[in-house]
Design goal:
By secondary structure, the chain is of the alpha/beta class. The chain is built from six helices and ten strands, in the order E-E-E-H-E-H-E-H-E-H-E-E-E-H-H-E.
């Protein structure tokens, strides 16, 4: 079973008071793009971690039997708190899981499916574009306890560096794995 944890709890601090997840791209809120792309892939469950303005974001998420919506009461403590919240809700049947960032709506279903196919016996699969690491990262369930130890407003980047021997770099021909939407200027596409 393949799961995805979508971190959507942040405060959009670089957006001049706007919530980036509600801002529209091509007529649709950013969060809807991210959720749709994950659900269109071959994942089995999607755990969405909400925090800041959770009621507003939750109303934008379409109901689907694959989705679990979870509130991270510690969202102000940064990204690692959302990741750890999501890990606590993984299905017991999960063999591998993605850590996905809600502000990366250009990651399409093909990228998710490519990474799943490349997993095989690897413990960490990182998408790369022109040799640079991107998101989402796919982890074997064997990495769960290590990820539970991360702290602060960081993802699993340091963990990946510490476990280079367990990483498969999977080159994709799509810059969407590098494009996040953190500032107003990012929305001018």
């Amino acid at each position: 079973m393949i799961s995805a944890i979508l971190t959507a709890a942040g405060q959009s601090t670089r957006m001049n008071g706007e919530n980036k997840l509600t801002k529209e791209i091509k007529g649709m809120p950013l969060i809807k793009h991210s959720v749709k792309n994950i659900l269109d892939s071959s994942i089995d469950e999607l755990i969405i971690i909400l925090g800041h303005e959770k009621e507003i974001i939750e109303k934008l998420i379409v109901s689907n039997k694959k989705i679990k919506i979870v509130f991270n009461k510690d969202f102000k403590n940064g990204l690692s708190s959302s990741i750890k919240t999501g890990l606590r809700y993984l299905s017991k049947k999960t063999n591998a899981f993605f850590i996905c960032l809600a502000d990366m709506p250009l990651v399409n279903k093909n990228i998710y499916n490519e990474l799943i196919k490349s997993m095989k016996n690897n413990e960490i699969v990182v998408p790369t574009y022109k040799g640079q690491y991107g998101n989402p990262v796919l982890f074997s369930k064997s990495m769960k306890n290590s990820i539970m130890k991360i702290q602060g407003d960081i993802g699993a980047k340091d963990l990946i560096e510490l476990n280079k021997d367990k990483v498969l770099k999977h080159e994709v021909n799509d810059r969407g794995i590098k494009k996040d939407f953190n500032t107003i200027d990012n929305f001018n596409i």
